[in-house]
Amino acid sequence: MSATHAQSGFPSKPITLVVPYAAGGLTDQLARELGAYMTTTLKQPVIVENRPGGAAQIAMNFLKGLPADGHTVFIGDVPSLATNVGLFPKLSYDPRKDLQAVTELVEAPALVVVPNKSPFKTFDDLVKAAKAKPNSLSYASQGVGTGGHLFGTLLSDHIKAPMTHAAYRGSMPGLADVISAQVDFMYDAMPTAGPLATSQKVRALAVGADKRSPLLPDVPTLKELGYGSIVPTFWWGAAVKRGTPEPVVAKLHEVITAAMHDAGIAKKFTSQGILVKTNSPAEFGQYLNSEVTYWTKIMRDAGMQAE
Q1: Which site among 14, 88, 137, 199 is 20 to 30 Å from 218 CA-CA?
Q2: Domain span including residue 85
Q3: In degrees, to the nearest 5, what angle opens at C-alpha 147 toward C-alphas 143 and 150?
Q4: Torsion angles phi and psi, residue 111, rounded to 5
Q5: What is the chain's alpha carbon radius of gyration, rounded to the nearest angstrom?
């Protein structure tokens, strides 16, 4: 019996896609593309609701306060679905206990970028400089506990050379200070750092991904350079409240996966260097749990906590 037939009454009312950030970012962009496709396919309005702030707690508490019936879907990323657990000791939610995974949506490779006038022409140059003079290099991040911060912490630990961390409120302010050479480097996702590298506003030294990016084919991967173990992945996914009936989860999985593999939607992301990546609810659930466990340990070992 198909999931569609098993839960023929779903959806029985409009669906809300909850985004823990303001409009305009990649999480919001994903939700809006999914919403448009799901509205057509499910014959019910699908509304995107942005509930930013509080380390995703505002959005997550909104979801937790509603019935576990599949009519509210959380569209999140690595911080909201994984790393916030290790970062905030008093976090009001735990994705492992409060959520039922639906599917991963996309993964974005990341770039290590330096100012165009930087003396570092290769990633090895940067590492040598960091080792030669501890604390002489500074790196920008998107905020405490983000991918950029995790990468800087892991790199520093890996090469045994301390560096100065500068936390920003998101990618763009950090990248602006890379462009103006206020900081030495930044590890940032392809959708934001990529256009600056291709337009030569910054220089890309390495790609955080399994293989080179077709947008920057001459830039080696960190894996090629021997740093494959310290590559935080930027990923996004969909989840519902724990306790949502399995046939409803299956129906949501079916329509969301179809949306992400729709040629028109997929191209909007692949053209930015993003990889469409979907999996089963069980696979995504296991991945989500492993990411929480892995990054919580890294953060605790590094003494990385937010106020």
Answers
A1: 137
A2: 3-107+233-301
A3: 90
A4: -125, 145
A5: 20
In DSSP terms, which residues pair with 179 in a beta bridge?
A: none
Any idea what the CATH number is for the domain that residue 16 is in?
3.40.190.150
Q: How confident is the model over 117-129, as pLDDT tens digits?
A: 999 999 999 999 9
Q: Give the type of residue at 302.
A: A
Name the residue type at position 51: R
Q: Count the neighbouring beta carbons within 10 Å of the beta carbon of residue 179.
A: 17
Residue 282: inside a domain, yes or no? yes
pTM of the model: 0.88
- Asked if 120 and 190 sit in the same domain, the reply is yes
pLDDT tens-digit readout, 248-304: 999 999 999 999 999 999 999 999 999 999 999 999 999 999 999 999 998 888 888
Number of domains the chain is built from: 2
Report yes or no on 224 lying in a domain: no
Three-state SS annotation for the chain:
CCHHHHCCCCCCCCEEEEECCCCCCHHHHHHHHHHHHHHHHHCCCEEEEECCCCCCHHHHHHHHCCCCCCCEEEEEEHHHHHHHHHHCCCCCCCHHHHEEEEEEEEEECEEEEEECCCCCCCHHHHHHHHHHCCCCCEEEECCCCCHHHHHHHHHHHHHCCCCEEEECCCHHHHHHHHHCCCCCEEEEEHHHHHHHHHCCCEEEEEEECCCCCCCCCCCCECCCCCCHHHCCCEEEEEEEECCCCHHHHHHHHHHHHHHHCCHHHHHHHHCCCCEECCCCHHHHHHHHHHHHHHHHHHHHHCCCCCC
Indicate whether 242 belongs to any domain.
yes
